[in-house]
Amino acid sequence: MLEEIASSRFGFWIVAMIMAAVDSSFLLKPGKFAFSISRANQVRLRISSSPFTLRNRELASSFLSFPFQLFFISDIDALERTAQETFNALSRMRRLSRQTTIFSTLSAVAVILLVLGPCAAAVLGIQLSIMILFPPLYGFAIATSVLLWRRRRRFGFSNSTVLKMSAEIIFCPVLLVNISKRISLAQKSELNTFRLASLSSSPDQTMAAIRENIRYHNGD
Length: 220
Known about the structure:
The protein has 11 helices and 6 strands. By secondary structure, it is mainly alpha-helical. The strands form 2 sheets. Strands 1-5-4 form a 3-stranded antiparallel sheet. A 3-stranded antiparallel sheet has the order 3-2-6.
């Protein structure tokens, strides 16, 4: 089946989309939860009461849960900070999220190019579609790499971290779609999940979902 897809008229673009979809996935250890922050510092925790796991780690997709958006990882075992310390940390994360707007835009453009790929292939043929759409995608990947290098200190990234991200998206520009995921996972976990639950729109329901997730991992 895969051989048929690869050799079809749309094979190149279908494979590219599959690569982007697979690359958007990431694994969470038991007790760790991904979350995003609204402009009002309200927390949205991603919690599944019956998660799909691989080797006791929860499989998640950044493209489905946090499309073109920076997210962070919390831990139920993290030191519980005071309300003011938590608020300050969330404010800092929200500012960091605003600084990634350009990366989200580049990622969205990359998705548009991938979607246009099969359309162009249907009208112009596979070779011409690649010649027209792939160079801009490669150019955006290079531009993203330059921006990552220039802003590495704002994100607290080491030179090796930025070089690794840059190498990935330059050698495979399709992965530009998930640049927000790469930036997100490079951030350090520092906030307690239970403290964050109290700052969500439905604290009681969120807390119950967290406990249900923990029981699932513990096999209770």
